[in-house]
Design goal:
The chain is α/β, with parallel strands linked by helices and 329 residues long. Helices cover 38% and strands 15% of the residues. The strands form 2 sheets. An 8-stranded parallel beta barrel has the order 3-4-5-6-7-8-9-10, surrounded by 6 helices. It has a two-stranded antiparallel sheet with strand order 1-2. Helix 5 links the parallel strand 7 and strand 8. The mean pLDDT is 94.
């Protein structure tokens, strides 16, 4: 059962997504890991229930999230069917296409054929008539940008998505496709990029400042650097950690003494702020209002509750900002 009242929204902050009318929660739930065919369904359902009951209205998926590809959407569809779907009008559901999804020459990248076919499959897996945001998951270097943008515009006009987003586009790529969307009148509202204390590419390539100045929302993923920005690895690599279970995204050599020294110093500062390191790392992303929402992953409901504990404490003094920059080097 879900809490059937408005109190779920009291403790969450909602931010306008660029210049659009859409508000996103400061914290959104990503279904990249832990919602696949190898996960426990009851835990998945409990995580979604905990998220929604605490004001997380945005659930972020992609066609290839699993494992196996498509499994996260299928499981989320079952969760909607078991009760969450009763609140469809209170939810923002997003999905993406752009990475390898099915065999042959038409199951990847950014062609009109792939993007439209993939969304039809995603809607079927989730049991939905439309998604709120449909993303192109990565730039396609070979398909004309006009074709990709045109397909996304057509998808909105067909009623299968309300808004359009892009993911993993740098500043120059964002400017190029945004101009096409502007000419077509496409409701393009958001770019999804990796961003954390340890990965600051959107600052270096200028996207963060550009998006803020031009009414484009930004939602960030991997805010805890695959767990490095927590106390998970301070005393070594646990046997049940993601590094041991799945070393594709976080390598063992990333847990080195130089990084751990930074983590310990950041943890000490977080303690002074009355936060866990994870909470401070999430708060830091939202520190200046340029980021619309931060995507978190979770393997159990308690992690969600811990992460959203930072809402309302996202301000940093000038001294704290300097200390963080010094620690990060």
């Amino acid at each position: 059962m879900y809490i059937a009242d408005e109190k779920r929204y009291d403790s969450m902050q909602y931010n306008r997504c660029g210049d659009s009318g859409l508000l996103l929660p400061a914290v959104s739930l990503g279904l990249w890991h832990n919602f696949g065919s190898n996960g426990n369904f009851d835990t998945m359902e409990a995580m979604c229930r905990t998220a929604f009951d605490n004001g997380i209205t945005h659930f972020d998926l992609a066609n290839n999230y699993g494992p196996v590809s498509g499994a996260a959407e299928e499981n989320f569809g079952k969760i909607l069917e078991k009760g969450l779907g009763e609140y469809r009008d209170e939810l923002v559901i997003s999905t993406k296409a752009g990475y390898d999804m099915w065999p042959g020459p038409y199951g990847n990248w950014g062609s009109r054929k792939y993007l439209i076919a993939s969304l039809d499959q995603s809607l079927k897996r989730m049991g939905l008539d439309y998604v709120d945001i449909y993303y192109h998951h990565r730039p396609d270097p070979k398909t004309p940008l006009e074709e990709t943008a045109g397909a996304l515009d057509q998808i909105v006009r067909s009623g299968k998505a309300l808004y359009i987003g892009i993911s993993n586009y740098n500043k120059e790529q964002t400017i190029a496709i945004a101009q096409l969307f502007k000419e077509m009148g496409t409701p393009f509202i958001i770019n999804q990029r990796k961003y954390s204390m340890f990965v600051r590419d959107i600052e270096k390539d200028g996207l963060k400042d550009y998006a803020a100045a031009h009414g484009i929302g930004i939602i960030t993923f991997c805010p805890l650097a695959q767990g490095l920005l927590t106390d998970r690895y301070i005393n070594g690599i646990p046997e049940d950690s993601r590094i041991r279970r799945d070393g594709r995204f976080l390598k063992e050599n990333a847990v080195n003494e130089e990084t751990l020294d930074k983590v310990r110093k950041l943890g000490a500062l977080a303690k002074e702020r009355g936060q866990s390191l994870a909470q401070m790392a999430l708060a830091w992303i939202l520190r200046d209002g340029d980021i619309t929402s931060v995507l978190i992953g979770a393997s159990r409901p308690s992690q969600i509750l811990d992460n959203i504990g930072m809402v309302g404490n996202t301000s940093f003094s000038e001294e704290e900002r300097k200390q963080i920059d010094q620690i990060l080097g």
